[in-house]
Amino acid sequence: PGARCPTLPAILGGSLPRLASDQADAVARAKKYAMEQSIKMVLMKQTLAHQQQQMATQRTQVQRQQALALMCRVYVGSISFELKEDTIRQAFLPFGPIKSINMSWDPVTQKHKGFAFVEYEIPEAAQLSLEQMNGVMLGGRNIKVVGRPSNMPQAQAVIDEIQEEAKQYNRIYVASIHPELTEDDIKNVFEAFGPITYCKLAYGASAHKHKGYGFIEYATLPAALEAIASMNLFDLGGQYLRVGR
């Protein structure tokens, strides 16, 4: 009692006491800490965003690799039980280099079960065999050739995307090329259909021996389509070319 409370004008008009040296240091440290935490938070968000981007990119790459692996395989059904693996290999080899052939064998009968999976080194070879071997008579039966069934439904969307990307190019695939023919030989033959912007044969370990297939890109789509229509099954050097997209 008797003590007077400071009036509002006194509070508003009066000046605050200056910070002591240790208090000023504490405020400076607090500002520095807040700034450091802010920078850490920004860096953390940037790192997290970068990691998420990397994971998304890796996931996309894995999906594309899985899709391409599926695109390299074909299912061959309705195979005569008298046919051996070598016959299947010889029938499908003209479309491109074969990585593996998997025939399911019955241990009781010691015969295969009438179907096989053929895996090519490249998807273009598998696609061409799909287009040209389905329904072909082999060993007295019309074989059935389809894309390998996938247990990954999400792969189909990626496959569709890859196929759409391929349509942007006027590129054709040429297989069953005689080993003694060169890139110049192929280019000289195929440029009859229009200007060629790219012609390349695939080579393996030896730089002097191609693998029997290659790619040609034309300046226009009509030229590419005409080359496919005219040169598929054309006898060049004693081998029938297989040509597709």
From TrEMBL:
Example GO biological process: regulation of alternative mRNA splicing, via spliceosome
Keyword RNA-binding part of the UniProt annotation: yes
Protein name: RRM domain-containing protein
GO molecular function, one term: RNA binding
Span of domain RRM: 72-145, 170-245
Organism: Pectinophora gossypiella
The organism's place on the tree of life at top rank: Eukaryota
CDD domains: RRM1_PUF60, RRM2_PUF60
One GO cellular component, as annotated: precatalytic spliceosome
PROSITE patterns membership: RRM
The entry's keywords: RNA-binding
